[in-house]
């Protein structure tokens, strides 16, 4: 009687690491940066946490998140993201300079008080003032004149507002401020 020989052997951890390294290398630069940044987060995390870490709105991160999921490096579980396999984190870290990995390990985000995206408490007084003027449908030039600042300074404040609140446009900012105002009314 002839013995049955399996046609393929299960992959070894080294085989898995090699495949994962190839997938990491095959990502676009922005998706690779996103996956590398996730090594600073706990094993599962909310996309908003990644957005805050990278200082980019969630909307702008979606294509990179989808690319990382399609490459089999991240998985979406309910409203959380996680590495798809226990070897992904060490493989991704191996693709990074040692000094960066060491810095990430030292500065892993601690459980900070949770701030919701759109929390106006994140804004400085000047940023809040600029946001309120945007809500009045003023242009950057008009805001600059009112605040006696340059339009470039106003643009800088707007970028900071968008980053801190996880927004992508003036329309989203006006919508957020409108919702806040509506909840304050009796």
From TrEMBL:
The keyword DNA-binding applies. GO terms for molecular function: DNA binding. The keyword Flavoprotein does not apply. The lineage of its organism: Bacteria, Bacillati, Actinomycetota, Actinomycetes, Micromonosporales. It holds the Pfam family GerE. It comes from Paractinoplanes tereljensis. Transmembrane segments: none annotated. InterPro entries: Sig_transdc_resp-reg_C-effctor, Tscrpt_reg_LuxR_C, WH-like_DNA-bd_sf. GO terms for biological process: regulation of DNA-templated transcription. It comes from the Bacteria. CDD domains: LuxR_C_like. This is HTH luxR-type domain-containing protein. Residues 116-181 form the HTH luxR-type domain.
């Amino acid at each position: 009687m002839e013995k049955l020989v399996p046609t393929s052997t299960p992959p070894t951890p080294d085989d898995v690491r090699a495949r994962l390294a190839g997938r990491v290398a095959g990502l676009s630069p922005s998706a690779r940066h996103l996956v590398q940044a996730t090594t600073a987060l706990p094993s599962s995390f909310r996309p908003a946490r990644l957005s805050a870490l990278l200082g980019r709105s969630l909307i702008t991160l979606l294509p990179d998140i989808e690319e990382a999921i399609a490459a089999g490096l991240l998985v979406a579980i309910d409203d959380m993201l996680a590495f798809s396999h226990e070897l992904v984190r060490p493989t991704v870290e191996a693709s990074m300079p040692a000094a960066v990995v060491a810095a990430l390990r030292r500065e892993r985000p601690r459980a900070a008080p949770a701030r919701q995206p759109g929390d106006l408490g994140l804004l400085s007084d000047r940023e809040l003032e600029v946001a309120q003027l945007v809500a009045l449908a003023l242009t950057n030039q008009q805001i600059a004149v009112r605040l006696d600042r340059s339009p470039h300074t106003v643009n800088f404040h707007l970028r900071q507002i968008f980053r801190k609140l996880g927004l992508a446009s003036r329309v989203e900012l006006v919508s957020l401020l409108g919702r806040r105002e509506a909840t304050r009314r009796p």
